[in-house]
């Protein structure tokens, strides 16, 4: 992201402000949402949620659990089950 910002010749805060204005939340929250969505897609084809979490970019289970609960109100297992319906 830093390289893109430099190549465009804009400040580092500019994309953050634009994200906040357009979506109502910041770039970091968007990154968390996209990573959780990536986890849900990957979880369909993996035997374990741990393997899906690692492939989606989570460093460990507590980060996945935190994102899942904060963004959806559900545990990762509950979210995968609900998403599969």
Automatic annotation (TrEMBL):
The HTH araC/xylS-type domain is annotated at 1-82
Q: Which Gene3D superfamilies match?
A: Homeodomain-like (1.10.10.60)
Transmembrane parts of this sequence: none
Instruction: Please give one Pfam family short name.
Output: HTH_18
Molecular-function annotations in GO: DNA-binding transcription factor activity; sequence-specific DNA binding
Q: Know the name of this protein?
A: HTH araC/xylS-type domain-containing protein
């Amino acid at each position: 992201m830093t390289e893109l910002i430099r190549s465009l010749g804009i400040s580092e805060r500019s994309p953050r402000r634009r994200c906040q204005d357009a979506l109502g939340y910041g770039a970091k929250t968007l990154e968390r949402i996209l990573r959780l969505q990536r986890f849900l897609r990957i979880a369909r084809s993996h035997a374990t949620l741990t393997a899906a979490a690692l492939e989606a970019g989570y460093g460990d289970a507590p980060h996945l659990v935190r994102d899942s609960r904060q963004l959806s109100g559900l545990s990762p297992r509950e979210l995968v089950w609900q998403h599969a319906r």
